[in-house]
Model the fold of this input.
Amino acid sequence: MSAAGTPTAGTPAAGTPAAGMPAAAMPAAGTPAAGMPAAGMPAADTPYLRPAQLAGRHFSTVIVGAGVNGAGVFRDLCLQGVDCLIVDKGDIAAGASSAPSRMIHGGLRYLESGAFSLVAEATRERNLLLRNAAHLVRPLETVVPLSSRFGGLVGSVLRFAGLRASPGARGLCVVGLGLRLYDRLGRRQRVMPEHRIARVPEADGALFGTAVRWTATYYDAWIRHPEWLVLELIRDGHRDQPASAASNYCSVTACQGRTVTLRDGLTGESVQVTADTVVNATGAWLDRSAGALQGQGSRVMGTKGSHLILDHPALRDALRGRMAYFEASDGRVCIVYPFLDRVLVGSTDIPVDDPDQAATDPAEIDYLLDVLREVFPRLDFGRGHVVYTYVGVRPLAHSDADKPGQISRDHAVVIDPPNASRDVPLICLVGGKWTTFRSLAQLAADAVLAQLGRARAHSTEQLAIGGGAGMPADAPGLDRLLDAIQAASGLGRARVAELVSRYGSGAQALARGFAHEGDAPLRHAPEYSAPEVRFLCRDTAVQHLADLVIRRTLLAIRGRMTAALAAELAGIAAAELGWSPARRDAELQACITTLRDRHFVLFPVSISSPVTI
Done:
């Protein structure tokens, strides 16, 4: 999820019954149909349960919101031996956590507002993620085009002093000073080179245009599949505390006394559990969740950030594996970088009142394309290059700043004490950014432990996440890992390398299992196999086809989805999860509608039924 307890507006169909299908007619994905083989059941050690399986249970902590912050709290508390339940009214990682710029960064631009402690914390957490989640988080060389020597100097000084100043393109002096400080603040746990500034190379001059005279180069990081890391946090937590559980499409409708009422979003059934503490980790939905949790409101505001995925080989090749970090003419900081075989462009920063209604507007697409034309004048950009769009709502603390970009990205943990209706403390996570989820989770977990009268037993600081455990730190070590997996599974080298890039050290066991089942590639997306899709359906709480397409795989964001591929995936999911033909076809139509209407994926108006693959 995101830090939010509800799905982003970019995936509403994934969290609701298909048109014409009542919620009660949609069984939990893990519930087999009569006569369904055991292969369709979730793994015996799964953390994922449906609300009916939770009825009457007691948990030391109930965490509302299964995004990266909530999942981080879940993992941290489970490591301390605390039994937790984490729930989300949408899918796991279906809100802002699935819609970042996919950057793991320290926040270079926050220096101008004097947020030194935030930048120091974020750069340190970036460095830790490069170690602890090396299978998903990788260094990202970043280039900043510079056209003047002293540009933006006065404005930067005024903004640093807390005064309002008009945006202006920052020049060599301002950027150079900022990068020196950035390197200094990020020295702890450093794993990447320091910055450098040089005359613009000939190739970059051709890319950016004649006005650019210098380029500054520094390093941040990017994450390949943020939704998968959230799933790994939950899996790791359940491993450390098997009494803990997770449930998606499960909303909290009331918190009275010590009783928390849960509603199954698939069946409409309500059940009750009891808790000693409750954590509100719903991000931009924090104030909206406060009503059901009997907590205080008016703590957060949201700004939406829309991103584009382009099929633009010329731009991708010209970037040469680097991110371009630059200012648009209106002062908005934008980024462009190669994302797998595509190009990621971001982002807008627009206040929204209702995060459930946030969507990428056509005007935002045009704005970002115009920015690209401005920065890369020798390249052509048009709607035809856009293969996917997505939007997330940033959870920001309330602010009276003039512009969204001036609002602090810092975080805090606030405790609402028991009141006349609620007998348990409510721990609220306010603000935050993707990169700092671990440190925010640590703050929240410490607050929960204090309320429970328990002491911290273990730190997550040096703790690997999921498939990051045992990942080699160098190329020769990676080669040895690939050799071992290839020898044990019999799969081809390219296939093994792809699995390691997705699942890290977890690919060792998965490759053997996939090979045992034949590892037949999908007809319309051969980089995935049928056994791999069945595993994702079975072991990661897939409830809707959109869960699989948008969050469990990278097929959608890479612009790979076609009607034929969607139908093929629907057929596999239906067989694995026990969907009836009617349910299968409804899921297909709902997924197609979400991709077409919310992510600007081109599809026919309707897909023929019954499904054919």
